[in-house]
Amino acid sequence: MKVRGTRRIYEGRVVNLRVDDMEFQAGKHGDIEIVEHGGGVAIIAQPAADSIILVRQFRPSTGRRLWEIPAGKLERGEEPAACAGRELQEETGYRAAVLQKLWSFYTAPGFCSELLHLFQAQGLSRGEPSPDEHEDITVEIFKVAEAWALVERDELPDAKSQIALAWLRGNAAVAAGAIGRP
After folding, report:
1. Mean pLDDT by 10-residue block, N- to C-terminus, for the chain (182 residues)?
2. Pick from 12, 27, 73, 76: CA 20 to 30 A from residue 87's CA?
3. pLDDT given at position 88
4. Nearest 10 degrees: Cα torsion 153, 131, 97, 102
5. What is the pLDDT of residue 133?
6. Residue 135 among the catalytic residues
7. Total tally of structural domains belonging to the chain
């Protein structure tokens, strides 16, 4: 496969949309729509080993208020760790003494370039949140088991948050000896 040409059909504040003219096997070609996104961060913030901070906010794309871990988009030229610290403070009021990057993953690689960087926040100190003017955020601390129960009841349908909670549960199971280390 190769790209024969590209045209941008929309430029926005958060995303751009381009159409790539692709050449496939046997000389066939077709258009592929790509959402260009500058990337973002998500933060696992735990005030205690068995708890996690979740935020609830209205997500227009779903028409619902969703529980999720704190997250946000990278500003142009911003380093992911700086973005993680900024978003954690803005959305929750908490500051982290240490932000450890866990890994990065594409959110929907079939059509979107968004690369999300997942961090674990350690050494939390509480302050006042300073959300953006368009954000109406509720902050709550959940026991990890309570947060996972939200997933099981389809009340936490956010993939990045489900990944974070599964990681926490897996680590707890390893620590308890319920499963072996990889």
Report:
1. 95 97 92 97 96 96 96 97 97 97 97 98 92 84 97 96 95 63 55
2. 12
3. 98
4. 50
5. 76
6. yes
7. 2
* Interatomic CA distance for residues 120 and 101, integer angstroms: 6
The CATH code of the domain that includes 168 is 3.90.79.10
3-class state of residue 171 by DSSP: helix
- Residue 180 forms part of a structural domain: no
The answer as to whether 182 is a domain residue is: no
What are the distances in angstroms from CA 69 to CA 22, 83, 106, 138, 179?
37, 14, 17, 11, 26
9-to-45, 96, 111, 136, 175 alpha-carbon distances in Å: 38, 40, 15, 31, 50
8 Å CB contact between 122 and 44 = no
Asked whether residue 16 falls in the same domain as residue 81, the answer is no
Helices (DSSP H) in 57-158: which residue ranges? 80-92, 144-152
DSSP string covering 24-47: -GGG-EEEEEEEEE--EEEEEE-S
Do 31 and 82 lie in one domain? The reply is: no
Amino acid identity of 52? I
Catalytic residue among 36, 135, 140, 155: 135
How many CB atoms within 10 Å of residue 111?
10
Residue 14 located in a structural domain: yes
Same domain for 154 and 136? Answer: yes
Domain that holds residue 27: 2-36
